[in-house]
Design goal:
InterPro entries: K/Na/Ca-exchanger, NaCa_Exmemb, NCX_ion-bd_dom_sf. The chain has twelve helices and four strands; from the N terminus they run H-H-H-E-H-H-E-H-H-H-H-H-E-H-E-H. With 319 residues, it is an all-alpha fold.
Amino acid sequence: MLLSLIVLVFGFVLLVYGADKLVEAATSIAARLSIPNSVIGLTVVAFGTSAPELSVNVMAAIEGSGEMVMANVLGSNVFNGLVILGLCAMIFPLTVKSATTWIEVPLSFLAALLVWILASDQWLDGGDINLVSRSEGLVLLLFFAVFLVYTLLVSKNPQSPTEEVSVTEMKLSHAVFWLLLGLAGLVVGGNFIVTNAIFLAQSIGLSERVIGLTVVSIGTSLPELATSLAAVKKKKVDIAIGNVVGSNIFNIFLILGLSSTIHPVLVNDGTFVDILVNCVAGLLLFVFIFSGKGRMLERWEGGVFVLLYGAYLSYLLFF
């Protein structure tokens, strides 16, 4: 059990390091191809921060662990929405300045509602069990394709609040080497995490769902946490919100879509509580930002988010 815990932690290290090297190499290659910096920020970097969740979920889907797949997506989204945005708002009130974010915040809430609809439409699946089927996974991927086109169009807007991405100059051979090494880190790290998280869950009497919603989802959300905290410290609050909201949209449309296309994701009754919490987090963000005069997530509202996550975590671990 101790060895599994060590390998699990090592898996997270590989995962985060692999994602970092993947982004560094990919941005270098993209710059060599004369891709605009704003497009790199909205695509390569965005993919990079979601790469840990993608890696873990693809591994879980290949192994047929639907419970881990859904738990990681929902757990990451709830952590992003309640903890990361909550902490950022407590450091500095988050004011939504861009019309882009006005669109993405409602879209992230609608994505959360879509998970509820797809997970509970057993009559469409022709059975009496709840699952996200392969065909529904393809629908999610179609939504992701539309969202990706939208983000590329946004990048052409000079008023778009995209952050300037620092590009490390590398020889092409070096960039390809680090790209492949980063991918290897994601694959190996993701495999270590899924295998050992399931073993630890069985050893201590917890379900894969609870381990996925807590340890795994928090670990894979570390890149979003680091990126958003760095942005808010620079007072780039629109970017801090955009990172979280964009990541949540990525998680549902791309990661859940790809995972359920690989293997249908079975949804048990307990998961609907997590789906509800995800919807509530998205709804509260929408209400807090758009109900006031200043289009702002204030410090006390950030505190409410963090307290809600504490209550949800207590429910998972003790009830």
